[in-house]
Write a structure and sequence with these properties.
single chain; 233 residues; little secondary structure; three-stranded antiparallel β-sheet; two-stranded antiparallel sheet; 3% helix
Length: 233
Protein backbone atom coordinates (compact mmCIF):
# COMPACT_ATOMS: atom_id res chain seq x y z
CA UNK A 1 0.00 0.00 0.00
CA UNK A 2 1.38 3.36 -0.98
CA UNK A 3 1.59 6.17 1.55
CA UNK A 4 0.12 9.63 1.27
CA UNK A 5 3.42 11.18 0.28
CA UNK A 6 3.24 12.72 -3.17
CA UNK A 7 4.82 15.16 -5.56
CA UNK A 8 2.95 17.83 -7.49
CA UNK A 9 3.66 17.66 -11.18
CA UNK A 10 2.67 20.31 -13.75
CA UNK A 11 2.55 19.35 -17.39
CA UNK A 12 0.57 20.75 -20.32
CA UNK A 13 -1.59 22.73 -17.92
CA UNK A 14 -2.55 19.66 -15.87
CA UNK A 15 -1.45 18.85 -12.33
CA UNK A 16 -1.21 15.38 -10.93
CA UNK A 17 0.16 13.33 -8.09
CA UNK A 18 3.01 10.94 -8.74
CA UNK A 19 2.56 7.37 -7.52
CA UNK A 20 5.13 4.87 -8.67
CA UNK A 21 6.37 7.32 -11.32
CA UNK A 22 3.00 7.80 -13.04
CA UNK A 23 1.01 11.04 -12.69
CA UNK A 24 -2.57 10.82 -11.45
CA UNK A 25 -4.42 13.36 -13.57
CA UNK A 26 -7.73 14.81 -12.42
CA UNK A 27 -10.30 17.17 -13.85
CA UNK A 28 -9.70 19.54 -10.94
CA UNK A 29 -6.07 19.83 -9.86
CA UNK A 30 -6.93 21.80 -6.72
CA UNK A 31 -9.25 19.03 -5.59
CA UNK A 32 -6.58 16.43 -6.22
CA UNK A 33 -4.18 18.31 -3.96
CA UNK A 34 -6.92 18.83 -1.34
CA UNK A 35 -7.47 15.07 -1.24
CA UNK A 36 -4.28 14.68 0.80
CA UNK A 37 -4.56 17.65 3.14
CA UNK A 38 -4.24 17.24 6.88
CA UNK A 39 -7.97 17.61 7.63
CA UNK A 40 -8.66 14.51 5.51
CA UNK A 41 -11.71 16.05 3.82
CA UNK A 42 -12.46 16.39 0.14
CA UNK A 43 -16.18 16.98 0.10
CA UNK A 44 -17.54 17.22 -3.45
CA UNK A 45 -14.07 16.94 -4.99
CA UNK A 46 -13.85 16.37 -8.75
CA UNK A 47 -11.43 13.46 -9.18
CA UNK A 48 -12.79 12.13 -12.47
CA UNK A 49 -10.28 10.05 -14.38
CA UNK A 50 -7.65 10.19 -11.61
CA UNK A 51 -5.24 7.28 -11.28
CA UNK A 52 -5.10 6.72 -7.53
CA UNK A 53 -3.77 3.19 -7.60
CA UNK A 54 -2.76 1.97 -4.15
CA UNK A 55 -3.41 5.22 -2.27
CA UNK A 56 -4.52 5.37 1.35
CA UNK A 57 -7.83 7.22 1.67
CA UNK A 58 -9.00 5.39 4.78
CA UNK A 59 -11.43 7.25 7.07
CA UNK A 60 -11.50 10.28 4.77
CA UNK A 61 -14.66 12.37 4.38
CA UNK A 62 -15.43 12.17 0.66
CA UNK A 63 -19.14 12.91 0.48
CA UNK A 64 -20.24 13.82 -3.08
CA UNK A 65 -16.70 13.22 -4.42
CA UNK A 66 -16.53 12.10 -8.05
CA UNK A 67 -14.07 9.30 -8.90
CA UNK A 68 -15.84 8.29 -12.12
CA UNK A 69 -13.69 6.84 -14.86
CA UNK A 70 -10.68 6.68 -12.58
CA UNK A 71 -8.52 3.94 -11.08
CA UNK A 72 -8.42 2.99 -7.40
CA UNK A 73 -6.93 -0.48 -7.75
CA UNK A 74 -5.64 -1.80 -4.41
CA UNK A 75 -6.56 1.52 -2.75
CA UNK A 76 -7.50 1.65 0.94
CA UNK A 77 -10.90 3.31 1.49
CA UNK A 78 -11.69 1.47 4.71
CA UNK A 79 -13.89 3.49 7.03
CA UNK A 80 -14.24 6.29 4.46
CA UNK A 81 -17.38 8.44 4.28
CA UNK A 82 -18.60 8.16 0.69
CA UNK A 83 -22.22 9.26 0.81
CA UNK A 84 -23.49 10.15 -2.69
CA UNK A 85 -19.98 9.66 -4.13
CA UNK A 86 -19.67 8.72 -7.80
CA UNK A 87 -17.63 5.71 -8.97
CA UNK A 88 -19.24 5.17 -12.37
CA UNK A 89 -16.92 3.02 -14.47
CA UNK A 90 -14.21 3.25 -11.80
CA UNK A 91 -11.69 0.41 -11.42
CA UNK A 92 -11.62 -0.62 -7.74
CA UNK A 93 -10.10 -4.05 -8.31
CA UNK A 94 -8.62 -5.37 -5.06
CA UNK A 95 -9.52 -2.20 -3.16
CA UNK A 96 -10.36 -2.27 0.55
CA UNK A 97 -13.60 -0.59 1.64
CA UNK A 98 -14.17 -2.42 4.91
CA UNK A 99 -16.61 -0.47 7.07
CA UNK A 100 -16.92 2.35 4.54
CA UNK A 101 -20.21 4.28 4.32
CA UNK A 102 -21.23 4.21 0.67
CA UNK A 103 -24.87 5.21 1.18
CA UNK A 104 -26.74 6.28 -1.97
CA UNK A 105 -23.50 6.27 -3.99
CA UNK A 106 -23.34 5.73 -7.74
CA UNK A 107 -21.25 2.75 -8.89
CA UNK A 108 -22.82 1.87 -12.23
CA UNK A 109 -20.33 -0.21 -14.21
CA UNK A 110 -17.73 -0.06 -11.43
CA UNK A 111 -15.20 -2.90 -11.13
CA UNK A 112 -14.90 -4.25 -7.57
CA UNK A 113 -13.44 -7.65 -8.39
CA UNK A 114 -11.62 -9.24 -5.41
CA UNK A 115 -12.35 -6.13 -3.34
CA UNK A 116 -12.67 -6.37 0.45
CA UNK A 117 -16.10 -5.00 1.39
CA UNK A 118 -16.54 -6.47 4.85
CA UNK A 119 -19.19 -4.58 6.77
CA UNK A 120 -19.41 -1.95 4.03
CA UNK A 121 -22.68 -0.01 3.99
CA UNK A 122 -24.01 0.35 0.42
CA UNK A 123 -27.56 1.11 1.50
CA UNK A 124 -29.51 2.72 -1.36
CA UNK A 125 -26.50 2.69 -3.71
CA UNK A 126 -26.62 1.99 -7.44
CA UNK A 127 -24.32 -0.83 -8.59
CA UNK A 128 -26.09 -1.58 -11.85
CA UNK A 129 -23.89 -3.68 -14.17
CA UNK A 130 -21.02 -3.49 -11.66
CA UNK A 131 -18.68 -6.46 -11.23
CA UNK A 132 -17.86 -7.85 -7.79
CA UNK A 133 -16.34 -11.17 -8.83
CA UNK A 134 -14.63 -12.85 -5.91
CA UNK A 135 -15.34 -9.89 -3.63
CA UNK A 136 -15.56 -10.36 0.14
CA UNK A 137 -18.86 -8.74 1.13
CA UNK A 138 -19.33 -10.58 4.42
CA UNK A 139 -21.60 -8.67 6.78
CA UNK A 140 -22.16 -5.96 4.21
CA UNK A 141 -25.33 -3.85 4.10
CA UNK A 142 -26.68 -3.87 0.54
CA UNK A 143 -30.30 -3.21 1.45
CA UNK A 144 -32.39 -1.26 -1.09
CA UNK A 145 -29.46 -1.45 -3.52
CA UNK A 146 -29.74 -1.60 -7.32
CA UNK A 147 -27.61 -4.56 -8.44
CA UNK A 148 -29.45 -5.20 -11.70
CA UNK A 149 -27.13 -6.94 -14.15
CA UNK A 150 -24.25 -7.01 -11.66
CA UNK A 151 -21.76 -9.90 -11.67
CA UNK A 152 -21.02 -11.36 -8.22
CA UNK A 153 -19.57 -14.65 -9.41
CA UNK A 154 -17.76 -16.35 -6.53
CA UNK A 155 -18.42 -13.47 -4.14
CA UNK A 156 -18.75 -14.14 -0.41
CA UNK A 157 -21.93 -12.52 0.93
CA UNK A 158 -22.14 -14.45 4.17
CA UNK A 159 -24.34 -12.55 6.66
CA UNK A 160 -24.95 -9.79 4.10
CA UNK A 161 -28.20 -7.82 4.18
CA UNK A 162 -29.78 -7.42 0.72
CA UNK A 163 -33.35 -6.84 1.85
CA UNK A 164 -35.56 -5.00 -0.64
CA UNK A 165 -32.79 -4.83 -3.25
CA UNK A 166 -33.16 -5.11 -7.02
CA UNK A 167 -31.11 -8.09 -8.22
CA UNK A 168 -32.68 -8.74 -11.61
CA UNK A 169 -30.34 -10.48 -14.08
CA UNK A 170 -27.56 -10.40 -11.48
CA UNK A 171 -25.04 -13.24 -11.53
CA UNK A 172 -24.39 -15.08 -8.26
CA UNK A 173 -22.77 -18.19 -9.75
CA UNK A 174 -20.90 -20.12 -7.02
CA UNK A 175 -21.49 -17.20 -4.65
CA UNK A 176 -21.80 -17.76 -0.89
CA UNK A 177 -25.07 -16.37 0.48
CA UNK A 178 -25.09 -18.26 3.77
CA UNK A 179 -27.24 -16.48 6.37
CA UNK A 180 -27.86 -13.67 3.89
CA UNK A 181 -31.03 -11.62 4.21
CA UNK A 182 -32.72 -11.79 0.78
CA UNK A 183 -36.19 -10.93 1.97
CA UNK A 184 -38.34 -9.01 -0.53
CA UNK A 185 -35.59 -8.92 -3.16
CA UNK A 186 -36.28 -9.05 -6.88
CA UNK A 187 -34.21 -11.86 -8.42
CA UNK A 188 -36.01 -11.88 -11.76
CA UNK A 189 -33.81 -13.61 -14.33
CA UNK A 190 -30.87 -13.82 -11.90
CA UNK A 191 -28.40 -16.71 -12.04
CA UNK A 192 -27.68 -18.46 -8.74
CA UNK A 193 -26.12 -21.57 -10.25
CA UNK A 194 -24.15 -23.38 -7.54
CA UNK A 195 -24.81 -20.65 -4.96
CA UNK A 196 -24.79 -21.52 -1.25
CA UNK A 197 -28.11 -20.44 0.30
CA UNK A 198 -27.64 -22.19 3.63
CA UNK A 199 -29.68 -20.40 6.34
CA UNK A 200 -30.56 -17.65 3.85
CA UNK A 201 -33.89 -15.81 4.11
CA UNK A 202 -35.81 -15.51 0.82
CA UNK A 203 -39.09 -14.39 2.38
CA UNK A 204 -41.36 -13.00 -0.37
CA UNK A 205 -38.44 -12.82 -2.82
CA UNK A 206 -39.39 -12.76 -6.51
CA UNK A 207 -37.71 -15.79 -8.12
CA UNK A 208 -39.34 -15.43 -11.53
CA UNK A 209 -37.05 -17.03 -14.13
CA UNK A 210 -34.28 -17.31 -11.52
CA UNK A 211 -31.71 -20.01 -12.29
CA UNK A 212 -31.12 -22.16 -9.18
CA UNK A 213 -29.35 -25.13 -10.76
CA UNK A 214 -27.02 -26.76 -8.23
CA UNK A 215 -27.79 -24.19 -5.52
CA UNK A 216 -27.53 -25.42 -1.93
CA UNK A 217 -30.67 -25.13 0.19
CA UNK A 218 -30.36 -25.95 3.88
CA UNK A 219 -32.55 -24.30 6.51
CA UNK A 220 -33.35 -21.83 3.74
CA UNK A 221 -36.53 -19.78 4.17
CA UNK A 222 -38.33 -19.79 0.82
CA UNK A 223 -40.54 -16.99 -0.60
CA UNK A 224 -43.71 -18.63 0.74
CA UNK A 225 -42.25 -18.95 4.23
CA UNK A 226 -41.55 -22.67 3.98
CA UNK A 227 -38.20 -24.16 5.02
CA UNK A 228 -36.09 -25.87 2.38
CA UNK A 229 -33.68 -28.49 3.73
CA UNK A 230 -33.10 -30.50 0.56
CA UNK A 231 -29.37 -29.79 0.51
CA UNK A 232 -28.59 -30.39 4.17
CA UNK A 233 -25.97 -33.07 4.92
Amino acid sequence: MLTRSYAIVAAAGLIGLVFGGAPALAANSDDLETLFTADQQCRGCDLTGADLTGVDLSTRYLKWANFSGGTLREADLSGAYLWYARFEGTDLTGATLDGARVWDAFLTGAVLDNASLQGTVFRGATLRNATLRGANVTGGDLSTVNLIGADLTGADLTDANLENSSLGRAIFVEATLARANLAYVGLIGADLTGADLTDADLTQADLTDTVLTGATFCRTTMPDGSMNNEGCP
